[in-house]
Amino acid sequence: MKEFEYEFAESLYYTASEFEKKGGIWPIRAGRNQAKPGYAIGPKIIECYSIHFVAEGAVEFEFKGGAATLEAGDLFCLYPHHKYRYELGKGGTAPLRMYWLAFNGPQAPYLLDRLGISRERPYLRGRLTPDTEAALQETLRFIRSGNAGEECLLSASIYRIFGALHDPSACEQSDKGEEKWTARTLNHMHTHYMEGITVADVVRVAGVHRSHLYGELTRLTGMGPQQYLTKLRMERAAEMLQLRAYSITEIALSLGYPELYSFSRAFCKHYGMPPSRYPRDKGMD
After folding, report:
1. C-alpha span between 90 and 96 (Å, rounded)
2. Which candidate, 172, 78, 76, 170, places its Cα nearest to that of 128?
3. How far apart are CA 194 and CA 255, in angstroms?
4. What is the pLDDT of residues 46-72, one digit of tens each?
5. Which of 170, 200, 212, 225 could serve as 116's disulfide partner, Cβ 3.0–4.6 Å?
6. Domain map of the chain by residue range?
7. Which stretches of the chain are DSSP H helices?
8. What is the value of pTM for the model shown?
9. How far apart are CA 158 and CA 155, in angstroms?
10. Angle, CA of 8, 104 and 95, to the nearest 5°
11. Cα dihedral 174/72/99/103 (nearest 10)
12. What residue stretches are annotated with the HTH araC/xylS-type domain (predicted)?
């Protein structure tokens, strides 16, 4: 680390490639420091997200609408264009030592939300575990090396940081509302309907009683889970038939049906005609 007036610090700057910017998150800068007496930053703003991890000591953190004293194991997040200030805390028994990681990307606000961090409460307590610190040190090593071709490894190390910070109970709390579990369930059905998933699979993903799932999906879509899965499969079957690029057997197997008969029966029930007639009849409408 290099010595400055109020700290010893290592600051690492990173310029993401176009390849990395196609992903969900990429680093802007990172580093570590040990504060000296009189250490203070701000008030100022930044144009990216930045998480600061308190490894030792204490820091006084001021943000829009509040303030917090944070100690070893805690972290705080700076949001783009939000004014902040932080300084050496008075309650620490050891010198203030921190890591930081600044980043951007379309996934950034969602990753923070999943951790339970918000602009209104931009800090967490007790999340800097040995696993998190190891992932941070790995990320610093990748940024420090600057080796071309290691973008995937660097990205993976950043996701490991968020994985290590993850608290399952925080996700459970955020997923308790009707909107959360129903959105998750519909997303699962739209993603996997071609893979032969069953209503039992959907119930497991939803995490609610079967009757409650049926009631909510009926309210949202006008049909129960089995009917909705069938609708998705039949709509995709019609699209594939219109392409005239696949045989009916290939379409049946692609949509998760074990054989042609069960697919043809479901198709005929849904459209009122066998799949062999569908392209010609649609063309005559």
Report:
1. 10
2. 76
3. 4
4. 999 999 999 999 999 999 989 999 999
5. 170
6. 2-173, 178-284
7. 108-115, 130-145, 151-165, 168-174, 178-192, 199-206, 210-221, 225-243, 248-254, 260-271, 278-284
8. 0.73
9. 5
10. 20
11. 10
12. 183-281
Token code pair at residue 144: 């420090």
d(CA 201, CA 184): 13
Location of structure tokens 């039992």: 200
Residue 25 CA to residue 159 CA, distance in Å, equals 9
DSSP three-state, residue 76: strand
- What is the token pair recorded at 134? 């190891």
pLDDT, tens digit, 9 for 90 and up, residues 235-263: 999 999 999 899 999 999 999 999 999 99
Q: What CATH class is the domain 178-284? A: mainly alpha
Q: Quote the CA–CA distance of 184 and 207 in Å, as a whole number.
A: 10
- C-alpha distances out from residue 151 to 19, 110, 146, 246, Å: 8, 21, 9, 39
Q: Would you identify the CATH topology of the domain 2-173?
A: Jelly Rolls (2.60.120)
Q: Say how many C-beta atoms besides its own lie within 10 A of residue 284's C-beta.
A: 6
Q: Which residue has the tokens 């998750």?
A: 184
